[in-house]
Predict the structure.
Amino acid sequence: MAAFELDPKLAADTAEIERWDLCCVLLMNDANYPWLILVPARVGLRDFHDLAAADLPVMTAEIVRASKTLEALFKPIKLNVAALGNQVPQLHIHVIARRSDDPAWPKPVWGAVPAEAYDDAARAARIAQLREAFARF
Amino acid sequence: MAAFELDPKLAADTAEIERWDLCCVLLMNDANYPWLILVPARVGLRDFHDLAAADLPVMTAEIVRASKTLEALFKPIKLNVAALGNQVPQLHIHVIARRSDDPAWPKPVWGAVPAEAYDDAARAARIAQLREAFARF
């Protein structure tokens, strides 16, 4: 059986924060928004409904955990939760904290403005902040 | 306790197909894409993680049911599943069957091209087709 491998484009666009029971938890390299990507570490998934029945409640719990963490840290006006995958077919779930003064609001973030890469120090600080907060949810 | 009411903008943009255990199942009035919207019939929800713990597995099952139905009917290249709510804060989940020849592909559908309203006969036929298919999932 093939081992799970993160899609190369997802790997290039993100930094790994940590691994949960089901998902790789990634930070999107775009400082415009607090933006997590959850990737179930399972081979061959494309769509949400491809998840095994036993994985669905874990997926849901991990979406809720990511959402509550972003809410606590960033006080967003709205959380966006989405499995799109038009560009990268490997199943991945975006969890994005939106603010009314972010550069895409109220439009969806995808394609709205060019990504603003974190510098090394800012990325490390954001990852540390998220790890500390995840421990509370 | 207030009764659940569908957001007026959601009501204006959709037609009700049926009611499931948790959600109102709506057809988006845009013939560009097979596009369902699931609205949990609960008062005061904004984000996915606002769902009560007991409702989460029902929500997940209803997303899977909607997805499998669209997959069986339309053989999409990808299902898009998303809770955004930047325009309408009431929690609602989009389930959209994407084709590589649809007018937005591979971009997200929101704002890509103007909605193409169904005429009455086409809308009635689409609703009948979906009801028949839902019965099998």
Remarks:
- The first strand of chain B starts at residue 14 and ends at 19.
- Chain B is about 30% helix and 20% strand.
- Chain B has a mean pLDDT of 97.
